[in-house]
Write a structure and sequence with these properties.
By secondary structure, the protein is α+β, with helices and mostly antiparallel strands. It folds into two domains: 150 residues, no CATH class; 38 residues, no CATH class. Helix content is 21%, strand content 22%. The chain has three helices and twelve strands; from the N terminus they run βββαααβββββββββ. Helix 1 runs antiparallel to helix 2, helix 1 packs across helix 3 and helix 2 packs across helix 3. It starts with 7 loop residues before the first strand and ends with a strand.
Length: 195
């Protein structure tokens, strides 16, 4: 019997979920999908340069699982860059925590219910604060919110509109129809999800 999958802890959702290269024959290439946990691994390790051990702690997973997620994300991104594929950030099951740390020096945000931090994992500053989305005290344990892109999480779900990455044309999102299956009537480019 397989072990149940551990929900990955995500600190920050991507603001943009679709990256499309400028090329004529883009319709013939299959988009490459990167999951939210792969996005988070890239954000922590490559963008913020947080060491792998601390990144795994922040995401609430083992170092080996973090390494597998990071390797998968890097392979997908490199393939998309070399072959010119569209990159789409898609969901998956993950959790967020209402309580989080915020570094007052670099602005890095993270949460970790299993460990107390006295330094920022990004810039090593000791000037960090504990923040909550609600008005609860830091001593009270907050409830974890399970989020799933396309599910019923807090403020998360399918995009409200489909948007053309070329000309900016927007069309209302049709339930159960992926944006990439809709073609822009102005420039004939597949649409991407937008907010």
């Amino acid at each position: 019997m397989a072990r149940p999958r551990i929900f990955r802890r995500i600190s920050e959702e991507p603001e943009i979920r679709c990256f499309k290269p400028e090329r004529e024959d883009i319709d013939s290439l299959k988009p490459i999908e990167i999951t939210i946990d792969e996005f988070e691994a890239i954000r922590l390790r490559d963008y913020h340069d947080v060491q792998q051990k601390k990144s795994a702690e922040i995401m609430g997973i083992s170092q080996s699982t973090f390494h597998r997620i990071l390797t998968s994300a890097r392979k997908k991104i490199s393939k998309a860059l070399i072959e010119g594929n569209t990159i789409m950030i898609v969901g998956g099951d993950y959790i967020t925590d209402k309580k989080r740390y915020i570094c007052n020096v670099c602005g890095f945000e993270w949460s970790s219910p299993k460990k107390e931090y006295d330094k920022c994992p990004d810039c090593k500053s000791e000037n960090i604060d504990f923040s909550t989305e609600d008005e609860e005290s830091p001593e009270e344990p907050s409830l974890l919110q399970r989020r799933s892109f396309g599910g019923h999480g807090m403020g998360v779900g399918p995009p409200k509109v489909c948007k053309c990455p070329n000309c900016g044309y927007e069309s209302p999102k049709i339930q159960a129809v992926p944006c990439k299956n809709t073609i822009c009537p102005k420039c004939e480019t597949p649409l991407c999800g937008g907010n």
